[in-house]
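EI: anyone free to look at a 238-residue chain?
SC: sure, send it
EI:
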Amino acid sequence: MFPAGQNAFKAATVKERVAELLAELKARSNPANVAGMARYGIATEHALGVPIPVLRAMAKRAGMDHRLAGELWASGIHEARILATMVEDPARMTSAQMDRWARDFDSWDVCDQACQNLFRCTPFACAKAMQWSGAKREFVRRAGFALMAGLAAQRSEMEDAQFEAFLKLIAGAATDDRNMVKKAVNWALRQTGKRNARLLKKAIAAAEKIERLDSRSARWIAKDALRELRGKAVKASR
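SC: here you go
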């Protein structure tokens, strides 16, 4: 770290700050953590095994910085890309940049961190959720539904009509049997239903239709979601 602390770090050039952060990430690398990540289906080819709480502390020290985020992402290092999602300014993100980063996704955790830390806070969040929900690439499509889940949980100002539109896309993707897609579809369905009483009824109805589809992935998505959503409905009625 810079000996003079945070002020010296922020006064340094972008190149110097990137070098400092990458050096810290490499110094904190942990092969045992990398092995654990692999067991959870995380791509580890470029991973160092630095925990998320450490990345959040680093992001707090670095502050929000568009150029820094871009350089961290360009490094290709797994944790540096997650760190980039924490320091990027949502107001500086463009639609094209979101597409570029989404195409770079090679692991579910980077995808989800990008969606929850950053993408859901951009003006393009709803449009990208809808666009990516029909993507061919597994992690881009996952990003579409991870965004829907994040929006349902965090964007209280959004109208129900937007989530009803999402439910149609959720139903349309329910037969995709790729593991990283179907789990995100299930996540989006459950979060939509947990948003309010009206959407809970809509989500249960959507899940019941999905359950009747001739698809193993659709049946799994629906049954798993219905356990939670019907339980929530029962509690609400008491």
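EI: The chain has 14 helices and no strands.
SC: 👍
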